[in-house]
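**Entry details**
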Amino acid sequence: MQNQSVSIASLLYDKRAPNRCNVTLIGYKGEQCIPSVIDQPNLRILRITPILSHIPRSLFLLTAPIKVLLQVSHPTLIRYITVTTTLQILQLFYILLVSTGNTDAILLQNPPTIPTFLVVWISCKLKRAKFIIDWHNFGYTILALSLGISHVFVRVRNRSISSKKPHAPSIPQIARFIERVIGQKADANFCVTQSMQTYLLSNWNIHATVLYDKPPISFRPTPLELRHKLFQSLSEQLKLCNDLVSWEHDADTLEMTLVTRKVVHHDGIRHTFRHDRPAVVISSTSWTPDEDFGILFNALILLDQRIASSSSFPNLLVFVTGKGPQKAHYVEKINHLRLRRIRIATLWMQPEEYPLLLGAADLGVCLHTSSSGLDLPMKIIDMFGCQVPVCAVGFESLSELVQHSKNGMIFSTHLELVDQLFELLDGFPSRLNGNLHQMRMELQSIERWTEHWNTIAKPVITALWT
């Protein structure tokens, strides 16, 4: 959504009247926005603070009677419809109807679906604004995953007829109904895969334009000098990884990191790669059940055993970025590992630093498994922008992005991942004509976000007012 907002703001920007057409990016308060959002003159950021985030815990007792009434009237909904949700709806209405001022169009990224879909549609009706949906996934499948309902597509598509008694609709079914009905009312729809486009049309009669996520120009290979500065800045966080390489000491002429060397000559400064540098593998994860870090964790244990006596295989420096509920659990397990030739570092990078880290990697690993099977992981797109091939967990629509053995590899189990890591990194860094190198060459011609948006999205959006 950040890239979308920048593209729309750039389309509307007029230097002669810089404030004539403005774009407001609305999102929950949390992480810092990407630099291009901050730098766009006619783009303002409206951060939403959860309405009950600062209310004392004791005041939540006031909601108890209402929750009891809901429990009696509809036991299923009590898990989802709460006083908090009601207040969130009122907050969203206030933001869309009052805080944003005059509005010509609202672009909604889905998910989330509830309560956003209904609130945005009503707001568009009241303001006579165009309603545009950018389908990145389906809210009801994510909701089903969070509620622990397995294989939601089977559950929703194949209604149980084993009982004569009518069953109250499940929460995912309610969410699916809202998504379908409100989605049909949009003035324009975008989606991120051809598979999703087909599903929307054949099941919900929604005509959507495929607008693939593409990497912005900020995601690219990191120049050697910047890599050196990056690893210098990370030296304290990586001190437990220093045994992956040998160290020379010459404070006057030599400065070393785990990956690079900076040599001071009489005729200037020269940056080079270390000849004994480890291969840098990166995985960005949300540390949630739908991204099973255990696959990578177990694969690295087996790989370390496999390469113990291999002279052709490099040491590995594995970066794992992101935040999430399972992080503490796995960090503790990582701390108790006794790997010989592999080190794992968990990091959290700021938006302006993350592309530099990706651009300094040799290989990526993606553990994303789609709740619907119809979306694509943005983390792979970012890696491809940095010309970093990826090993990714396979699912239905992934082939629209990852072409096996051409720009990456697809695996199903940790055993397959072990084999792929060994195949791609054996002989690193001296083997320049191997599969890994060929994959990097394939990624040099990747299309960028701005060009793709101007070709696909711009005509659709401008046509709404012609």
